[in-house]
Amino acid sequence: MTFLPGDADWGVLALLIVAAFAAGWIDAVVGGGGLLQLPALLLVPGITPVQALATNKLASIFGTATSSATYYRLVRPSLRTALPMAAIALLGAFGGASVAAFLPAQVFKPIIVVALIAVALITLFKPALGAVTRLKHRGSRHVVIATVAGAGIGFYDGVLGPGTGTFLVISLVGLLGYDFLQASAKAKIVNFATNAGALLFFIPLGAVLWPLGLAMGLANVVGSLLGSRMAIARGTRFVRTLFLVVVGVLIVKLGFDVWNENLA
């Protein structure tokens, strides 16, 4: 088995490994690593969009597993919210991946850009948001809101992916009242489930490039270990700041894509 399809060379592999490491670091802190990893995969000559999505999920699941374990060991997030949200998100991601096989991502991008702008403005102009945990709902209502958010974001992750961790964090902060560090810890567990849900569809389809995905997965693990430890050491303010940076980059990248697609 070869690492790369088509005419890709070892220089491309090196670029992908660096992108996977950086994506693991960003995902571990605040989400949004797919912004680097998926576009890097799409640069590989001969790769199809579905192969890129599937291989991205394989690489990412190693990183989300690593950061989930690290956060759980050091932050001890409550699983009462995370596990039901993760279970529904897994199903949503499976459904989204089945749609991704035939529906172009261009359909979703304008909606995502508008949502990200709203997220950035709310976070920027509400500095107290996510500073401390003040739960907005209790009991079954809390879990229901979490699972509804998980279903929608899981579906998006199966279809496209970049920014999934970011959306998970802001839903846990804005809708449920967690601080940014606790939200990041729970988001990693849910993001692991969305990656697994998408892979449950992509693996039987034969879309995963296994050698490449495993190599990128190792780089993702290293980045995730460093990122999660830095986020825990630096705390909520650091996570919030990086969150705003990642959201801003996502807005620019996806907005540029929408602009180019409308001109084409």
Automatic annotation (TrEMBL):
Belongs to the 4-toluene sulfonate uptake permease (TSUP) (TC 2.A.102) family. It is a multi-pass membrane protein. It is found in: Cell membrane. The chain crosses the membrane at residues 12-38, 82-105, 111-132, 153-178, 198-226, 238-256. This is Probable membrane transporter protein. InterPro entries: TM_pro_TauE-like (IPR002781), TSUP (IPR052017). The keyword DNA-binding does not apply. Keywords: Cell membrane, Membrane, Transmembrane, Transmembrane helix, Transport.
